[in-house]
Design brief:
The structure holds two protein chains of two kinds.
Chain A (H helix, E strand, L loop, with lengths): L8 H4 L7 H30 L6 H35 L9 H21 L1
Chain B lengths: L14 H27 L5 H35 L9 H23 L1
């Protein structure tokens, strides 16, 4: 058991130091989730910022869906990173990303709203 | 004459280098997002626009610089001490995860008041 003083203790206070390659891969996954969040937020804002030929209520709904999903994604990035890093240190099976499904559903719903909004306009 | 350990990549898969590039892409995405957001939120060059643009630029530059320091430190540590060397804490990751949340608040304000 390590007496590591690094933060967060919930991660570094357990297990042993894993191969650095796994830690680095976990970090790249974290950053990929952060960039996904930025892209979702940009899409959500752009829907309302530009004068797009989409029915206003549906456009606003799609924008809010994308903003919500974009807000949740950084939490997946951080807590997902923590969970995976703990499992690496404990040499246990890695968890799956909890929010991948909701993100996919959210993007799908936003896409449907935009398509319908384009058709009914 | 053999080169010093730090003259060569620690890993033939270039894991540290790929991670550094990932940080750079993230900093660039943040910069572009903030500059576009500043342009979108306000059509005029007012205080809000400047705050978003300058704040985003400073944050992105800080993230980029921190990533460079992180890369050099890790390259040295792993080259000198091997692949089980502690690589440092996660404060930078927590700050990086907080940035999209802050942008979401600004974006939500804009969308709901636009």
């Amino acid at each position: 058991m390590t007496s590591d003083r690094r933060w967060p203790k919930r991660v570094y206070g357990v297990g042993e130091e894993p191969d650095a390659r796994f830690t680095l891969a976990n970090e790249r996954t974290f950053l990929a989730w952060v960039r996904t969040a930025l892209a979702l937020l940009a899409c959500g804002i752009a829907l309302e910022a530009f004068d797009l030929p989409i029915e206003p209520t549906l456009r606003l709904s799609a924008s809010i869906v994308l903003l919500l999903v974009g807000t949740l994604t950084p939490f997946q990035a951080w807590f997902g990173w923590m969970r995976v890093e703990r499992m690496l240190r404990l040499n246990r099976p890695l968890p799956s990303p909890a929010i991948a499904g909701p993100v996919g559903v959210g993007v799908f719903v936003a896409g449907v709203l935009v398509i319908v909004g384009l058709l009914v306009r | 004459m053999s080169s010093a350990p730090t003259d060569r990549p620690f890993d033939t898969g270039l894991q540290i280098e790929r991670t550094a590039l990932s940080w750079q892409r993230t900093a660039l995405a943040l910069l572009v997002g903030c500059l576009l957001g500043a342009r979108i939120v306000s059509r005029e060059l007012d205080t809000t626009t400047l705050a978003i643009a300058l704040g985003g630029t400073v944050l992105a530059a800080g993230l980029y610089a921190a990533a460079r320091v992180r890369y050099r430190r890790r390259h040295r540590l792993l080259s000198e001490h091997g692949d089980r060397t502690p690589l440092g804490g996660a404060a930078l990751l927590a700050l990086t995860a907080a940035l999209p949340v802050a942008l979401a608040v600004i974006g939500g304000w804009f969308v709901l008041t636009h």
